């Protein structure tokens, strides 16, 4: 009978390859992160509790082993935000959202603060994706800000990938005529503000303009908004 082949472990890059670390975190894709318990316990009360469990697994050399659900592409930037190293650079908004969700799960307060700033940095160029991401993360403030940033912008022809996960309730709040009414009321001077007027008079996604009567612009009906949402809306989270 042939001898079993030794198992080759895959370790993360610097600074998570140091053998002096006293804890190993293993991702589902088989990457092992060697970390120091003092650092991750300080950054995350969840990790702190996990490390004191009587049921914790051990590596072959006796080090504590944490098996987590996040893959290495999420764990690497998440742990870098805990370590005294350069902050990670994100290539796409999706990466920010996934790492931010993990930071929330592990109650990493400082990492959440930094990642929220990263999320907001996409507001000007991709407000619809930021809105959807904020809905998925249940960030009311960021969702409202992103919805306001949609004023004067066209909805993209193709729905952003985040829309596959956004609930119908959140989408309805974005397109509901009840929310448009928040911006159709005249100001104290009896006129609409320039920003409100511009957004209400903007064409819908199918190219149909809002109805006009005697030179005044009116918001689209509830039924038309449900079928052809416009950018003249803001989000009101429950």
Automatic annotation (TrEMBL):
<protein>
    <submittedName>
        <fullName>DNA ligase (EC)</fullName>
        <ecNumber>6.5.1.1</ecNumber>
    </submittedName>
</protein>
<dbReference type="GO" id="GO:0003910">
    <property type="term" value="F:DNA ligase (ATP) activity"/>
</dbReference>
<feature type="compositionally biased region" description="Polar residues">
    <location>
        <begin position="183"/>
        <end position="199"/>
    </location>
</feature>
<dbReference type="InterPro" id="IPR000210">
    <property type="entry name" value="BTB/POZ_dom"/>
</dbReference>
<keyword id="KW-0436">Ligase</keyword>
<dbReference type="InterPro" id="IPR011333">
    <property type="entry name" value="SKP1/BTB/POZ_sf"/>
</dbReference>
<feature type="region of interest" description="Disordered">
    <location>
        <begin position="183"/>
        <end position="238"/>
    </location>
</feature>
<feature type="domain" description="BTB">
    <location>
        <begin position="21"/>
        <end position="83"/>
    </location>
</feature>
<feature type="compositionally biased region" description="Polar residues">
    <location>
        <begin position="208"/>
        <end position="238"/>
    </location>
</feature>
<dbReference type="Pfam" id="PF00651">
    <property type="entry name" value="BTB"/>
</dbReference>
